[in-house]
Amino acid sequence: MSQSIVSARRRLATFTAIGAAAALALSGCASTSEGQSAEEFTGEYTGPAVELSYWNGFTGGDGPFMEKMVKEFNAEHDNITVKSNTMQWADFYQRLPAAVTAGEGPDVGVMHLDQLATNAARGVILPLDDLASELDLSEDDFTSEVWNAGIYNDERFGIPLDVHSLAMYYNTEHFKTAGITEPPTDDASFQEALAKLQAAGYETPFWMPARWPSHLMNLSLQWQNGGEPYGADGTQAQFDSKAGVDALTWQTSIIADGFSPEDVAVDSQYVAFKNGETSITWDGIWQINDLTESGLPYAAAPIPTIGADTAVWANSHNFFLPKQRSVDNDKANAAKVFIAWMSEHSGEWAGSGMIPARQSVRDSGILDGTVQAPIAELIESMRFLPAVPGIGSVQAETLEVAVADAVLGESDPEAALAKATKTASKLMADNEASFGK
User: Fold this and answer.
1) What is the pTM of this model?
2) pLDDT tens-digit map of 51-73
3) Domain covering 165-313+389-435 in this structure, CATH number
């Protein structure tokens, strides 16, 4: 099995494993201390030598870039040694709650933004408002969407390292053969490009997968159509709005119009693109280094604005501090120094294919000439899931299933989304009762 397929299935498992992680948190994290805090953070650490356990899930092409940054940090700090514990994201989210409850969690870690609320609600991670204040970090240096998505119950639980979104990858040789001189930017130019590619002999130029990342495409299109997949108060889903139905109908039309095969398995569209079999694919910017190393003639651009509004699904890696059974002020403050250093040096992280979350870092020119530079130009259009506990498992059990059913022709878009919306709203109500606010 190819590494790309394996990575995709593991990504999918990450989202479906959240339910198990929540269950672990339910049974264990209630025993952790409340109101835990360290002594005031001064912005630097001058205490005795400490060793920090740092948990992360950077097992792919991004891993070497993170390890390089950790080594640089250690070299600059004689009294702090950071030891990385790197694991698959699915394992990370399963292990973290139980480890924290047992007093065996990390001293510092990084997780996806859409997992912060769940872990905050279960008492797994600590607020970081003092750190943000000390570092003078505010919405002014971030997009409002990524900054505000790290807030749960009026407290900040994450410091954003990056943003990573879907992008449109296209084979530059295929485009040249088809006479396409610019990447498509809207529905009309996208349809025109697909028709030209077919005419040039590329029979199925854009594969529509049934699963990953098809639901991320759907979310992007919902936002582009002016919709919101979840209600503002986080208690109900609204996939079955006109915006949602139009989004899924467009996805199924790609197959109906003959631009895609009918049954595209998880990650098959990416493998086909990487092998030069297809002309266009929508996937995450985390694929950049893999595509570059493959030698494929390609370029990247923002996904086209199919609807009326420019918008695209995105996520973000955020640093966090786990709750500790007993507070070690030296380790707590050393961990904050580590987070501060990583944030300040996030330009180096751009080498992993990610986009630094801080505007001041992006303004330094660190992205000039990179593949992700065109995507970063539209960072204001990136959208994130709301800070609702358990949202990952809700989505995996409902929206992902509805999108797959419609793409596979097992249900029409309206019926599939109506069923998913009803189930998701029930799950969200259950979560509200379970997690509380």
Assistant:
1) 0.90
2) 999 999 999 889 999 999 999 99
3) 3.40.190.10
